[in-house]
Amino acid sequence: MRKIISFMHISLDGFVAGPNGEMNWIKVDEEIFDHGAKRIGEGDTALYGRVTYQMMEDYWPTAADKPDASKHDIEHSKWYANVHKVVLSKTMKNDDLANTTVISDDLFDGINKVKQGEGADILLFGSPTATHSLMQQDLIDGYWLFVNPIILGEGIPLFVNVKDKIKLKLLNTKQFTSGVTELNYIVDK
What we know:
Blueprint: E1 4-11, E2 15-17, H1 30-42, E3 45-49, H2 50-63, H3 71-82, E4 84-88, E5 100-103, H4 107-115, E6 122-125, H5 128-136, E7 142-148, E8 156-157, E9 168-175, E10 181-187
Parallel strand pairs: 1-6, 1-7, 3-4, 3-6, 4-5
Antiparallel strand pairs: 2-8, 7-10, 9-10
Helix pairs in contact: 1-3, 2-3
GO molecular function: 5-amino-6-(5-phosphoribosylamino)uracil reductase activity
Domain Bacterial bifunctional deaminase-reductase C-terminal: 2-180
Protein name: Dihydrofolate reductase
């Protein structure tokens, strides 16, 4: 069965965004882009909440076409065009969305159907509200966290309303020159 891996930038004190959704504190450079691109490139399914999906749709389909497009923009734009997208939303419809599936009700069954399909791990990008919903139903199998060297003090936390303890097994870590540290965990069931 395929696994859902949550890919998230996080502050040292556990926030994924500032109080108003700010993400300007996240450190991303070519070293992190290149490292992440290897793992992301192996994925064939991306999972998003509605808000994150709409942000991605506003940027990635045309990112490679811009005159100042970076190597990362070109590579990720190509990947985004080909990857199957799954969106958790109670308001979006599946109509006319190329290579996209919308799960609007019965989250547990909808996600398990995707997990039982063919393919590589399913990468859950950002999407704190969707992540919280999946956590509450024990549907996340791993956490790929990029811990940024900052304490926000307040914001949108990654871990909220966790019903039971979630035991994790550390697979690997990596320190980047920017001070960001990658922590790659799998849920130890």
